[in-house]
């Protein structure tokens, strides 16, 4: 009985020891769990404070960015309005200049047209005068030709009459025929030479007069042609000058518009680059997270 009691007592002691150890373990686990919960609560409180601080900083940063963006938008709007006013003013100035140039060009065209018509009228009058002179010279030449022909006919009739008389004299005076024939031939040769000389002089005189008249006609024609060339050059130079003035005015207007567009583009580019350099932070949640 003593051995059984001893075993029972030993078993009871072991069971008590095991219960004590289990109780200590449960107490230690409870203490550790309490410390862990306290640490988790403190960590959550610290994280919530950090999130609140980050949210406050982000709100301030967003407000600052909004104020900066509004200020830049206001400046950009003022700049756009100024550029628009300058563009409208430049367009008005260009329109006035273009209207002035068009009016001057129209006046110049009217003046050139009047000069051209006057030159055509003068040329027509000169041409009619030259044609009248040419017709007059042609009539004189025809009259001279008729006079030559009549002189040749008279000369031929005179020669025929003289030959008939000489032939009658030859038949009437056969004794003096040889001498008279020689005399007649000599006189005929002299008369023929004289006639040829006179005819050559008349022909030379008529040709000289005709050459002078044709030379005068050619000279007048060349003068008229030179005047027409000078008028054509004046018209072409005036038209080229007006065209160049118009082209330069349009080029200056385009350069002004291009400079305004480039300045606007550079301003917008600078604004976009300034806005693109900012970093936006995500807004954290203020709701505490539950521990696992």
From TrEMBL:
The keyword Membrane applies. The keyword Membrane applies. Residues 62-131 are annotated as: Disordered. The chain crosses the membrane at residues 235-257. Keywords: Membrane, Transmembrane, Transmembrane helix. This is Uncharacterized protein.
